[in-house]
Amino acid sequence: MALELEIEQAIHERWAVTGALIALVPAARVFTGAAADNPAAPYVVWQRLSTAPAARTSSGRQISRTRLRCEIRAEQLAAAKQIAAAVSEEFNRSAFSLAVGTCLAMQHAGHEETLTPQGWWLVATEFDVTHEGSI
Fold first, then answer.
1. 42: domain CATH number?
2. pLDDT digits (tens, 9 = 90+) for 12-62
3. Strand runs (DSSP E) across 25-101, as ranges?
4. CB atoms closer than 10 angstroms to residue 33
5. Among candidates 69, 76, 82, which has minimal Cα distance to 112?
6. Residues linked to residue 42 through DSSP beta bridges, in sequence order
7. Alpha carbon 57 to its chain's center
């Protein structure tokens, strides 16, 4: 689980220094797991859906696959789509270092758009993340 949290931390760190993302949603309105304190829209919630081991290298490094979901909640569909496009631009087909290990590849795996009963738009993008680290 620690490596998974490192992936989420790395995503938050990248968000905080990426001008295109901060311009659309400040880093303070990007959450992991669930939104805190009923934030103003738009806001983003990253959720870990699953993690499974994929292989072990001869040097003892574990290769795993994690499915992450990025949920964008906004009052207007156009705003949510703009944020989703920026998220995809920054993270799709990306690789980056973790505190322990590496995100080898983060690839777009799915997308949906839903108008909630409360009248908010929920635009969700899922990513398959292949990562490695020591166990």
1. 3.30.2000.10
2. 999 999 999 999 999 999 999 999 998 999 999 999 999 988 888 888 888
3. 30-32, 43-56, 61-74, 94-97
4. 10
5. 69
6. none
7. 26
